[in-house]
Each structure stands twice: as structure tokens, then as C-alpha cells.
Design a protein that fits this description.
Layout: H1 3-13, H2 28-31, H3 55-70, H4 96-107, E1 118-131, E2 138-151, E3 159-169, H5 172-177, E4 183-187, E5 195-200, E6 206-210, E7 220-222, E8 225-227, H6 229-233, H7 239-253, H8 259-272, H9 278-289, E9 295-301, E10 307-317, E11 320-329, E12 334-342, E13 347-359
Antiparallel strand pairs: 1-2, 1-13, 2-3, 3-6, 4-5, 7-8, 9-10, 10-11, 11-12, 12-13
Helix pairs in contact: 1-4, 4-9, 7-8, 7-9, 8-9
Length: 366
């Protein structure tokens, strides 16, 4: 694809509702929407960047948090001559390949490159859970905010800052039929009568804990195994070479997933929250653009209601059909969210990346 064609795509890709209102100052939260590592056979394992290796581990982290809570510039419109041709409306990308190539081009000029003692990742995680009476089961969405201070140098401690944001009923009618509870007790699996967790609609306290066992040598996960910050910084910047590197790592890890899907979620990790140079992120986007099975969903909103465009990959697994979505802001090339949906199209888990970058500051203290 020529540079001229890519630049045309860049201009056309931005969703119209993301454009600033010429009558008022643009909202930075809209214009600068900011943009997880991978392990195992199911996509939920990509919570593993900081030890949250599976969806169950996400729930466990939520449980730990919840149980602790139990005890004026104006722009002038341009003058248009009467015989001047009106500009055509922006044309969004027509394929997943076009969107991913646009994102690759943009990410080379919108970077979080740098150096520092810590890679600081701020995100929101959501995981769906079934609750309610046996005859009228329904689902709630458990939400947690997470701030990970991942050490990049030997001797520095890695730290996790978490807060339970509250549970939200997903089926309002079933929730009301259950008496509109604001608290759910999820029994333990041992049958001993003690609750494994208590979830409420109210947020919990902010907690700070050291991430024991996490060091500069194993803070990051990619393609089913641990990688260091130096390894990530040295990844290939050419799509075919990057793909070959990932395939070797996936084989070493014994990944049971199909090649295209495993490469898709490995690419997701590289473009969302891993500390890699912009050229590596661009290579990951271009690699994904060449994968079979990736399709364009068009304009979407993420779990927080932020606008973007999405690509998706659908897989058949032990738990049935699921769809993994990657939400991208084509104006910046940043991947801002990742989601999983079931065969019915229901949201089962999500990750929203608020920010990711280097810092020399000291992490919060417990």
C-alpha cells in the first residue's frame, strides 16, 4: 500500500462523531482517548500481565478487594466560494485490514516510548458472574480498577493498586424479580457454608499490595510465556519477522489454539499495554492485518461508552463460540479496549486501558 493511499485512509478513518465541534473547545477526553499480556489457551488468560492469568483469577482479585470491604477558543467557519465543490463525507475503512493498516501508520507518530524504573498500567477490568435464585439466575458485571507498577529494573518491587468499583446487574427485570438486591453472596465450592465472596453494588476501598514473585525478569507475558522489558524492546519491527518470533514462542509454550487466533491475541497484547516501541506496535497491527478470520465491526462503543472502531476474531472452543474484539481509535492508532462476547453477543469480560507509560516515580505504598 502506498504512502499516499495510507494517508488518505487516515483522513477517512476517523468516525465523524469523534470530530470536535467547531463551536466550542474540543473535549480532551474525546480527542485523546488512551489506549494486556497473554498466556494459556483461552483469551481470558491475557489478564496475566500482573498475575491475573485467567477469568477466574480476575474474579479472585475482585474477591480479595470485595472481602476487604466486608469487615474559550472559537473557530471561524471557512468561507466557501459559491462555485467551490463541497467536501465529501469521510469514508470509514471498509475492511479490518484497512483499519489495522491505518492504526499502524498512526501509531508511529503517537507513542508512549521512553524509559523509566516502572511501566505503569492503569485499566479497568470487568467480568460477568451468574447470581440469583436457582430458578431465576441472572448476571452481574463485576468491575475493578487496577493500577500496575511493574518494575523494569532488578531490586525494584512491583506493586498493584486495586479498587472494586461495584457490581452492576445486567438483566434489570430478573434483578427486580430477585428483590433488587445490592449484595450477593457467592458460596464456596467446599460446601462448608462459608462464602467465597461477597459482592455489592457499592465500591470498595483502595488497596495497595506488593506483587510477590514478580520481578523485572517475569513481569510481562507474551505468547504464553514470560518476557523481559529488554526482550520486548528488541522485538522485530517487520511484520513477517514478528510473526515468526511469536509462532516460535507459541510452539515452545505448547499453545493449543489455532495459529491465526493465537497470533491475534498476541498482537492484541502488543498494541494495548505492553512496553514496546512504536515500531513494534505498528508491526503487530500490520501482522494482524494479514491474518485470516479477522473482520471489521465498524464503529462501536466500549464498556465505558467511548467511541472507536473495532475488529474481531471469532473462535470455537470448549466453552462454545466466543468473539474477541479490539477497539481502536483510528485517529491515534491506540487500542483502547479489548472485549469478549459469547455466542449470543453478550459481553462476558472486558479490559479498558486508560493509560500505559514509563515512570521514574516511586510506586504507592501499602
Amino acid at each position: 500500500m502506498s504512502d499516499k493511499k495510507l494517508m488518505e485512509l487516515l483522513a477517512d478513518a476517523r468516525p465523524r462523531r469523534l470530530d470536535p465541534d467547531p463551536r466550542r473547545r474540543p473535549d480532551p477526553a474525546v480527542l485523546m482517548a488512551h489506549p494486556r499480556p497473554v498466556r494459556g489457551r483461552r483469551p481470558a488468560r491475557r489478564f496475566a500481565v500482573a498475575g491475573l492469568a485467567t477469568a477466574a483469577a480476575v474474579a479472585a482479585a475482585l474477591t480479595a478487594v470485595v472481602l476487604s470491604d466486608v469487615d474559550t477558543d472559537r473557530r471561524v467557519a471557512p468561507v466557501v466560494e459559491a462555485d467551490a465543490a463541497a467536501p465529501s463525507a469521510p469514508v470509514p475503512p471498509k475492511t479490518a485490514r484497512e483499519l489495522l493498516l491505518v492504526a499502524a501508520e498512526r501509531t508511529t507518530t503517537s507513542t508512549v516510548d521512553g524509559d523509566g524504573r516502572y511501566w505503569v498500567l492503569r485499566r479497568e477490568l470487568g467480568s460477568r458472574m451468574e447470581v440469583g435464585p436457582a430458578a431465576r439466575r441472572y448476571h452481574i458485571m463485576l468491575r475493578i480498577s487496577e493500577e500496575m507498577w511493574l518494575a523494569r529494573r532488578p531490586g525494584d518491587p512491583s506493586v498493584a493498586v486495586q479498587r472494586f468499583l461495584g457490581a452492576e446487574p445486567l438483566d434489570e427485570a430478573a434483578w427486580r424479580a430477585d428483590g433488587s438486591p445490592t449484595r450477593w453472596v457467592v458460596p464456596g465450592l467446599d460446601g462448608g457454608g462459608k462464602p467465597a465472596a461477597v459482592y455489592t453494588t457499592a465500591p470498595g476501598p483502595r488497596t495497595v499490595r506488593p506483587m510477590r514473585g514478580h520481578t523485572a525478569d517475569n513481569n510481562f507475558l507474551l505468547a504464553g510465556g514470560p518476557v523481559t522489558a529488554k526482550q520486548l524492546a528488541a522485538l522485530p519491527t517487520e511484520p513477517a519477522s514478528l510473526e515468526a518470533w511469536l509462532v516460535r514462542r507459541l510452539r515452545q509454550a505448547g499453545s493449543p489454539e489455532g495459529r491465526a487466533y493465537a497470533l491475534f491475541w498476541s498482537g492484541e497484547a502488543l498494541v494495548t499495554d505492553l512496553p514496546v516501541p512504536a515500531a513494534v506496535r505498528a508491526a503487530a497491527y500490520r501482522m494482524m492485518a494479514g491474518l485470516d478470520g479477522v473482520r471489521l465491526l465498524g464503529e462501536v462503543t466500549d464498556a465505558r461508552g467511548r467511541a472507536g472502531m473495532a475488529v474481531a476474531y471469532t473462535r470455537e472452543g470448549d466453552g462454545g463460540r466466543s468473539e474477541t474484539r479490539l477497539v481502536i481509535d483510528p485517529a491515534t492508532g491506540r487500542a483502547s479496549a479489548e472485549e469478549e462476547r459469547n455466542a449470543a453477543g453478550e459481553l462476558t469480560r472486558y479490559t479498558i486501558v486508560d493509560s500505559a507509560g514509563h515512570s521514574d516515580e516511586a510506586p504507592p505504598q501499602a
